[in-house]
Amino acid sequence: MLNTGDILQTIEMINQQNLDIRTITMGINLHDCADANADACCEKIYAKITRLAKNLVNVGNEISQEFGVPIVNKRISVSPISLIAAASDAENYLPFAKALDAAANEVGVNFIGGFSALVHKGFSNSDKKLIASIPHALSHTERVCSSVNIATTKAGINMDAVKLMGDCIIKMAHTSPDGEGLACAKLVVFTNYVEDNPFMAGALHGCGEPEAVINVGVSGPGVVHSAIKSVRGESFDMLAETIKRTAFRICRAGQLVAQEASKRLNVPFGVVDLSLAPTPAVGDSVARILEEMGLEICGTHGTTAALALLNDAVKKGGVMATGHVGGLSGAFIPVSEDEGMIAAAQTGVLTIDKLEAMTCVCSVGLDMIAVPGDTPSATIAAIIADEAAIGIVNNKTTAVRIIPAIGKQVGDMVEFGGLLGSAPVMRTHNKSAEAFIDRGGRIPAPLHSLRN
């Protein structure tokens, strides 16, 4: 049962430590919208989303006002469009992206995810059409987000898909209307995707999910940062215990909001995703948590160990708070969205190589990283492949959200605005991986995938 005392303890977190409910995300199943006629399919998609999500924003605002808990975003995730559009006569899938965008605009959510394909073991014809449509779809819509799953522990890595996504990201950077590759910020390349992730840009409504569902994403880097100041100089045991207790209280608040939203919208409650998702605001940084543990700057030696402790303690606290912890739950390390990460990257201490090591122990992967605009597509693909390898070997979700900044060089800043923040352009290695990427085929699944 929820304890009112637990919720009251969060008031200080909300008022002084940047605690918020980062998102209420409604997942919607679109499988019954499939139609041989593409226009009819798009009309069904628009109608279903606007019918089920018509009250989502108002309910989120009501809960926020009544409970005094900021709810920053209201979002929608849908079934992978490559599955829904497969039966249609469409030559490209831009109309489906526009239908999603129009529906998101109508109900007032800030993002809608699910312009997605699952290609970890191969491509259907529909998958190929969707991936080919991604650059124009994300450049010509405001709220649509896309994801492509290119590997799983059970299937291995689809290296043909890896190469294709490298090409796709470069093309999208050049077609992004803002000139700084912002469209790329709406695309995630996944390994071991999850079906109930409420966070963008990677949210989609998995095939094993209900007709509709409410998933809530909670965030609280500032709360954790403040809490561990009280145990400065104490042992790691005390540090971990403090983080666990703090995560417990944060997750209880998230469950309260999730249950209220579920009841008022008459939609089942899915999961609370307790991810420490930072923002560019001072005091809301994962990097600063790691530095409070004793590191001079995020990225120096010891950073991976500190992040491992943080991620584990957050998950343990969340699991004790609710029986429905899901999504990605842990700690995110998006460079552009974290004030401390930005500062560390600008000094050169935090590098892409160090970030890659950190992704072995955090909740997702290389996130919101800007690289020079002249970076070859094979280099982008190789970065994706490295993250996929970490994911399949460690049986965890990894992802890449990378932005080639056209016309920018190492050290330049790229401005995205809002929660996406700004990013220093980071150095990549100048030696080619093209011959490696051109091999094609699949990297086989690791031995430990044979669990049956």
- Measure the end-to-end span: 37 Å
Q: What average pLDDT do the residues reach?
A: 89
Low-confidence stretches: none
Number of domains: 2
Helix count, per DSSP? Answer: 16
The fraction of residues assigned to DSSP E strands is 15-25%
Instruction: Count the beta strands.
Output: 14
> What is the global morphology?
globular
CATH architecture of the largest domain: Alpha-Beta Barrel
- For the CA atoms, what is the radius of gyration? 21 Å
CATH topology of the largest domain: Anaerobic Ribonucleotide-triphosphate Reductase Large Chain
**Major beta-sheet overview:** 12 strands, mixed
Structural class: alpha/beta
What's the CATH class of the largest domain, please? Alpha Beta
SSE ordering = HHEHHEHHEHEEHEEHHEHHEHHEHEEEHE
> Residue share in helices?
40-55%
Features:
alpha/beta; 16 helices; 452 residues; 2 domains; 18% strand; Anaerobic Ribonucleotide-triphosphate Reductase Large Chain; two-stranded antiparallel ribbon; globular
Give a written overview of the molecule:
Strand 12 and strand 13 form a beta hairpin. This protein has helices at residues 4-8, 11-16, 38-52, 56-67, 81-84, 94-107, 125-139, 159-175, 221-229, 236-265, 286-292, 303-321, 339-347, 352-358, 377-394, 434-437, and strands at residues 20-28, 71-78, 111-118, 144-152, 156-158, 187-191, 212-219, 269-276, 330-331, 366-372, 398-405, 413-415, 422-424, 442-443. It is globular and about 65 Å long. The protein folds into two domains: 22-191, Alpha-Beta Barrel (Anaerobic Ribonucleotide-triphosphate Reductase Large Chain), CATH 3.20.70; 216-441, Anaerobic Ribonucleotide-triphosphate Reductase Large Chain (Alpha-Beta Barrel). The model has no long low-confidence stretch (mean pLDDT 89). The protein is α/β, with parallel strands linked by helices. The strands form two sheets. Strands 1, 2, 3, 4, 5, 6, 7, 8, 9, 10, 11 and 14 form a twelve-stranded mixed sheet that branches. A two-stranded antiparallel sheet has the order 12-13. Helix 10 (236-265) packs across helix 12 (303-321).
